[in-house]
Design goal:
Length: about 350
C-alpha cells in the first residue's frame, strides 16, 4: 500500500473548493499537498473516519484489511468503529467515554447499510463496550430499527455480549471534578486542590466511519458516549437516522459530530446526502449543513457557542468535511484509506 501521507503530516485541502461559490473566508491556496489529497480521492473501495492522522490511522487499519481483500463492508466499518470504542484513551466513544451527570456511561450508536436501506440503532445503552456492534445486530437480526436503555442491553446480552463497567478511573475523576465545580452552594466541596473553576465548555467527541466497497455499495456507523454529563436518558444525534448518520446506496453517506441537538433539528446527515444527490461535492454539502445550523440560530438570536462537524463520501469515493468554526486555528479533520493509501486532510471551516 502506498503511504500517501506521513505521520504528523496534515494535508490541507482548503483550496480544493476554490471553484465553488464562496461560503467561508478561507483563502484559496492550492498547494502540492492539496493536489496530492485531491488526486488520491475518488477511488474505490474507500474507508472514511471522522478523525485526523492519529486516530484515522488506527481506526481505518482493521477495516481496510477487510475491504481491500473484498470482504464484507459491514464487517469493515464495524471493526474500525470498534477500535475507538474499545480504547479507554478516547473519552467520547465507548469504553472510557465520559459519563452522564450521575456518573453512568450511556452510549449511542447507529449503523446503516445501503444495499438493503436498513438501519439499526441503540441509545442510552449501558455496560456494553461496543454499541456499534449491537446496532449492527439490531439492523441484521431484528425487524426493528432502534432499541434503547435496558431493552438494548437485554438484547446485547441475548447475543452474548458481556456487561462491564465502562467508567474508567480517568473518566470518573473528570466527572467528579465537573460535579464538584457545579456550584459553590451545594454540599460537594471544591476539587482536591481546593480550587473552583470556570465550568465553560463540555467535552465532545464521537466517531463516524463511512465506507464504499469496490462495487459502490455504501454503509456507515456513528458511535459515541454523547454529551458529557448529560441528563440521564438524553439521546443525541448519533443514533438517529438522518441526523448523526445517513446512507443512500445511490448517493453516498454522511455523519455528524458535535452538538447533537442542532444536528437533529436540521436532519444534518440526510440533508447532506440529499445535496450530494443533486450533484454537490461532499465538502460543499457539509458546508451547507453547517450554514443551515448557523442561519437558524442567528435568526433566533441564539449565541453560537457550540460546534458541529460533518463528514461525507459519495459513491465515487470523493470525501468531504466541514465544521462550524470559531477560530482560524481550528481545522476540522477527516481521514480516508483507498487503493492509493491513507490520507489525513483538513476540511473546510464555516466561520461564525
Ligand atoms: N453528537 C454527539 C451528541 O450530541 C456528541 C459529540 O459528537 O460530541 O451526543
Amino acid at each position: 500500500m502506498t503511504q500517501v501521507s506521513r505521520r504528523g503530516f496534515l494535508k490541507s485541502v482548503a483550496g480544493m473548493w476554490a471553484a465553488l461559490p464562496a461560503v467561508t473566508a478561507f483563502p484559496a491556496i492550492i498547494t502540492s499537498k492539496t493536489r496530492a489529497a485531491a488526486r488520491a480521492m475518488g477511488k474505490l473501495p474507500v474507508l472514511v473516519c471522522s478523525r485526523g492522522e492519529d486516530w484515522g490511522t488506527k481506526t481505518n487499519a482493521p477495516g481496510w484489511e477487510i475491504l481491500k481483500n473484498g470482504g464484507s463492508l459491514l464487517d469493515a466499518i464495524e471493526k474500525s468503529a470498534n477500535v475507538t470504542e474499545l480504547d479507554p484513551e478516547d473519552m467520547s466513544v465507548g469504553y472510557g467515554g465520559l459519563p452522564n451527570e450521575e456518573g453512568v456511561v450511556q452510549l449511542d450508536a447507529s449503523c446503516m447499510y445501503g444495499p438493503t436501506h436498513k438501519a439499526g440503532c441503540v441509545a442510552a445503552l449501558e455496560g456494553i463496550k461496543t454499541p456499534s456492534s449491537v446496532a449492527r445486530l439490531v439492523l441484521e437480526r431484528t425487524d426493528h430499527m432502534m432499541l434503547v436503555g435496558h431493552g438494548a442491553q437485554r438484547f446485547a446480552i441475548a447475543h452474548g455480549f458481556q456487561v462491564e463497567n465502562l467508567l474508567t478511573e480517568r473518566a470518573r475523576l473528570e466527572w467528579l471534578k465537573w460535579k464538584e465545580n457545579l456550584s459553590t452552594e451545594d454540599d460537594w466541596l471544591p476539587p482536591a486542590d481546593g480550587v473552583y473553576r470556570d465550568r465553560t465548555g463540555r467535552p465532545t467527541g464521537t466517531i463516524n466511519v463511512l465506507g464504499v466497497d469496490a462495487q459502490g455499495n455504501v454503509a456507515g456507523i456513528t458511535t459515541t458516549s454523547g454529551l458529557a454529563y448529560k441528563i440521564p436518558g438524553r439521546i443525541g444525534d448519533s443514533p438517529i437516522i438522518g441526523a448523526g448518520l445517513y446512507v443512500d446506496n445511490e448517493v453516498g453517506a454522511a455523519g455528524a459530530t458535535g452538538r447533537g441537538e442542532e444536528v437533529i433539528r436540521t436532519c444534518g446527515s440526510f440533508y447532506i446526502v440529499q445535496l450530494m444527490r443533486q450533484g454537490m461535492h461532499p465538502t460543499k454539502a457539509c458546508l451547507e449543513a453547517c450554514r443551515r445550523i448557523v442561519e437558524i440560530n442567528k435568526r433566533l438570536g441564539v449565541k453560537i457557542d457550540f460546534t458541529d462537524k460533518f463528514v461525507a463520501v459519495n459513491k465515487k469515493g470523493e470525501v468531504g468535511c466541514a465544521a462550524i468554526g470559531h477560530t482560524k486555528e481550528y481545522k476540522p479533520e477527516v481521514a480516508f484509506t483507498n487503493p492509493d493509501g491513507f490520507v489525513a486532510m483538513a476540511g473546510e471551516r464555516f466561520e461564525v
